[in-house]
Amino acid sequence: MASIGGVVAAPRNQEPGARQHATDGASRLPSPMPTAHSTDVAAAQAADIETDASRGSSNELNQNVPPAGDGAAKLIVPERGSGRFAVAPGASVTSGRGNLVTYSVEIESDLDLPLVEVARLVDETLADRRGWTAVAGRALRRVSANPMIRIRIATPETADRLCAPLDTGGRLSCRNGENVVLNAWRWANGAGGYERNLANYRRYLINHEVGHALGFDHASCPGPGAIAPAMLQQTKGLDGCTPNPWPATGGAR
Ligand SMILES: [Zn+2]
């Protein structure tokens, strides 16, 4: 695996024409895997990215008022980063039962985010009884070396690079191969439906993109007023559902 400017390049199996979902880290995960994404490149690209009609040009960066409710100071997100990531040290306890899936938590060095606290939020989210361990039949554990999944919070431009050939437009998150790329702009600003609870939006973002890494496809809102599935593209909109970050409470699929 090559290193470009400190960013670990996409695995070789992601050359144009290759399908991330057919050949990426999912194949390294324990089987049987849940239904994989389509093998159609365009469809899979469309399916795996958090599209957002409100995504905009860079000059709107940080102009939105961040969602209130988590009491945190506003995170200032630079458009561009170094591409170097700090990895959360140590390991979590193993949560859930089943074949083990390991993950790391990494934050691009340009972002003013507390690494240990972010890792704790990720750990708690993934270990939650409403989380993937309840529905995916896997055990999850954070490690600091040789993870199967790399959960990385990245500046918009680095997110674009890590998600390529998917186009994030600088405002979207993705799962691409071993990388679960959480766009720092979204981490800071959330999305509609979560205006009053940025922490829950972050939990949603973690669960949704890790869900892809575990092999889950997108889901639809089952009906007006229903609890949104975690695999609904809630960044894009709720389609009448109520916001929900948890796989076990909204239906996994
Ligand atoms: Zn998605």
Number of helices: 8
The small molecules bound here are:
zinc ion
For the termini, the CA-CA separation is: 32 Å
In the CATH hierarchy, the architecture is: 3-Layer(aba) Sandwich
| Beta-strand proportion | 5-15%
**CATH fold assignment:** Collagenase (Catalytic Domain)
Q: Biggest sheet: strands, sense, closure?
A: 6 strands, mixed
Order of helices and strands: EEHHEEHHEEHEEHHH
Summarize the structure.
This protein is of the alpha/beta class and 253 residues long.
What does this structure look like?
The protein is α/β, with parallel strands linked by helices and 253 residues long. It has one domain: Collagenase (Catalytic Domain), CATH 3.40.390. The chain has 8 helices and 8 strands. It has helices at residues 20-23, 41-48, 115-127, 132-135, 156-163, 184-189, 198-213, 247-250, and strands at residues 3-4, 7-8, 85-87, 99-108, 138-142, 149-154, 174-176, 179-183. The strands form 2 sheets. Strands 3, 4, 5, 6, 7 and 8 form a 6-stranded mixed sheet that branches. A two-stranded antiparallel sheet has the order 1-2. Strand 7 (174-176) and strand 8 form a beta hairpin. Zinc ion binds next to helix 7.
Offer a few descriptive terms.
six-stranded mixed β-sheet; two-stranded antiparallel ribbon; single chain; alpha/beta; disordered N terminus; binds zinc ion; 25% helix; 253 residues; 8 strands; Collagenase (Catalytic Domain)
Question: What topology does this entry show?
Answer:
Elements: E1 3-4, E2 7-8, H1 20-23, H2 41-48, E3 85-87, E4 99-108, H3 115-127, H4 132-135, E5 138-142, E6 149-154, H5 156-163, E7 174-176, E8 179-183, H6 184-189, H7 198-213, H8 247-250
The structure holds zinc ion.
